[in-house]
Amino acid sequence: MSTNINANVLKNFIVKTLGADKLTQNQAQKFDIAQDKYVEANKDENTYLELDEILADTDLYEQFATMYVEEQDKENEANAEKEKEEVAKVQDKGESKA
């Protein structure tokens, strides 16, 4: 399911999440990315993974896509809750005028 996320959308999410277009090994640990997966994806063996390396690795792509879907679900829940509160406020105002 989550591998169906558009690559450009996922790129934007990764940049927003990382605050950059590179993933260091410390950041990878923060996101529970196994060290062997990090090393496997690091094709040019820099001290970081570039955005294209992240997207080219199916495991990392899937992990970030899952994070994206989870964040979208949280945002949708928050928006639904906010909408319910606004509806309740409008109903309360309507009842107090009656």
Strand order of the largest sheet: 1-2
Individual helix count: 5
Report the major sheet: 2 strands, antiparallel
Q: What would you call the shape?
A: rod-shaped
List the helices and strands and how they pair.
Blueprint: H1 7-18, E1 22-24, H2 25-30, H3 35-41, E2 48-50, H4 51-56, H5 58-97
Antiparallel strand pairs: 1-2
Protein traits:
98 residues; mainly alpha; two-stranded antiparallel ribbon; 2 strands; 72% helix; 6% strand; rod-shaped
Quick take:
By secondary structure, the chain is mainly alpha-helical. The chain is 72% helix and 6% strand. It is rod-shaped and about 70 Å long.
Q: What does this entry look like structurally?
A:
The chain starts with 6 loop residues before the first helix and ends with a helix. The longest helix is centred in the C-terminal third of the chain and has 40 residues, at 58-97. The chain has helices at 7-18, 25-30, 35-41, 51-56, 58-97; strands at residues 22-24, 48-50. The chain is mainly alpha-helical and 98 residues long. 14% of the residues are buried. A two-stranded antiparallel sheet has the order 1-2.
